[in-house]
Structures are given as structure tokens and as C-alpha cells.
Amino acid sequence: MTIGTLTTPNPYFLAPLAGYTDAPFRRIAHEWGSGCAVTEMVSAEGLARDGKNTLHLLRRYEGEDNLIIQIFAPDRDPVGRCLDTLLSYRPSMIDLNCGCPVNKVVRTGAGSALMKDPGRIHSIVSFLCANAPCPVSVKFRLGWDSASENYLEVADACIDAGASMLTLHARTRGQMYSGKADWDKIRILKDHVRGQNAAVFASGDIFCGADALEVMARTGCDGVMFARGAIGNPFIFRQTELAAKGIDWSADVQVRISTLIRHLDYMIEDSGEAKAVREMRKHAMGYLKGLEGASKAKAAINSAMTRDDYLRALEAVESAASAVR
Ligand SMILES: Cc1cc2nc3c(=O)[nH]c(=O)nc-3n(C[C@H](O)[C@H](O)[C@H](O)COP(=O)(O)O)c2cc1C
Asked: Which residue in 127, 253, 277, 324 is a FRET match for 290, CA 20 to 30 A apart?
């Protein structure tokens, strides 16, 4: 699919996930067929100050050609100050976060607080469109709360400012991550902007290939972003591509475990063994979800200090799986 200057092999993207979508996870997702991936949200203010931690979030794996960088900011000012640094990371697209519900972010006027002021969204997006050589997108929610749903007004502001892609997480800020994402609103958004030059991506409760195909069929959206459904489950991209061809597939135990180990190895390459074994735990819980004999392995991984500790913990899951076969 093509969105401005960004061309991707498919419309199945890895969503931004703070604390997750670092270079090793994006690399694993790419290997399993993600069309493109988004960094976790990066503070424009942090970028402007060249914060070491912020810059670390923008590292790529070797050969990562396409990368959508997501920023958050309360207004245009820090975006202006961070622009040179941001562009030095060669984003294939810049995404503006208008969905983060977390108090720490909202208190500064960024994330989903921007939903209260479409004018500020317009000002940030038009600045980016005028000054960045790549397309600009916006990820937003239905509104601040159910009494103030204004996603169509926000979409109009984004398109008027020049955005090439809109991703709607079909919940309000008030819902945080609870309740069901309202896919009907994604259809309403797609119908609203039809004929204008902006792709619409769906986000919310897309947990398997069948969900992705269903939301695309029901709403006419151009693509989907997998979020919680991809944690410990990068196979979801392959599953979706195969489901689109009518093939029902899911990863077996061996595939899940070998991918977990490869993911851990990429993390070790990226940040060293001590940090990687800690950071990998939250991913490992996803890889092991639902597997026979996994509870012991999960406990062992939660106290693992080395790569070898992981291997020992995983052996038990593999033998439980062979015993079942
Ligand atoms: C742990 C976590 C971190 C997230 N971080 C971000 C983020 O940095 N930027 C963003 O736009 N959305 C973020 N999201 C929202 C997801 O991208 C997605 O829109 C949301 O989880 C709904 O999709 P899902 O129901 O399929 O998980 C985050 C969600 C979770 C659960």
C-alpha cells in the first residue's frame, strides 16, 4: 500500500506501544510480515533537549527501511524545536499522538488532551506537513469522553492540515482500554473522509487475523494496527496474510519458543544480557500464554538472570508439548 511517499508490502502495521515497540520487537514483527511499525511515543520536548533516553527510543535495527516515528507534544512549540533532530532519524512518516490517556501525559496538554482542542492538532500537523519531507499521520480516539465525541471534527482538522493517514482507536479517553472498541465509528470515519487523500487505519480489539479482516470488511478502512494482540504474538501478521487467502494458521509451540529465543537474542544484541533478560519478561508472558506447562516457565522467567535461565525454563514447556503430542 502507498501513503504519500511511504510504500509498504501490506496494510497490517505494528501499533505504537510504549515500553514494547523498540527495535528488537519491530524486527521480529517485520520477520513475521508486518507491513510497517510505529515507534513508541517519543516526547517532542525530550527530543528537543536531545535526552539520551528519548534518542535511544529511535534506534533502528539494521535494514529497517520504513519506520513511523510517533511524537507527543502539547502544541507546536516543542515540535518546532525538535524538528531537526527528528528529521535526522529519517522517519518514513511522522505520527502525532492524540490518544495517550495517561495522566502524566494528559496533564501536560499532550496525548488525548489534544482531542479537546482540534485547533492545536491542526497547528501541529500543518507545521509538520510544511516542514517534513515525509507524510504525516495522526492517531486519535473517539473523543475525550462519551459526552464529547469529536473524532470527525478532529479528522477534518487533520485532513485540512495535510495529514495523509488517520488511525482511530475507537474508544474515548474516558474508556482508557476498557469496554469494546466501537468499530462502527471507524466505518463512519471512513465514509466521512472518503474521496479525500487520507488513509484510515483501525485500532482497538484486533486480536487475530480474523479480527483484522472483519474490521476491514465491516468498516472499509485501509489498514489495521495490531497492538496488544501482537505482544508475544508477532505471528499475527502472518496469520492475517494467510487468513486473507482463506488459510487458517496459528503458530505451534516450537515456533513460539524459537521466536521467543530469537527475540531475546535481538534484545541482548541491542542492550546487553542483563537488561534484555529483564525487559524480555513482559514479552515472554505473551509468547507463553495458553501453552501447556507454561505457568512454571513463567515463574522461572520472572526470576531469570541469564539467557541460559530462559533456555532451561523453556525446555520444560517444549517437553510438556511433546508429551501431549
Ligand atoms: C502497553 C500499551 C502501550 C501503548 N502505547 C502507545 C503509544 O505509545 N502510542 C499510541 O498511540 N498508542 C499506544 N497504545 C495504544 C495502542 O496503540 C492501541 O491503540 C490500543 O491498545 C488499542 O488497540 P488494542 O485494543 O488492539 O490493544 C498503547 C497501548 C498499550 C496497551
From this structure: 277
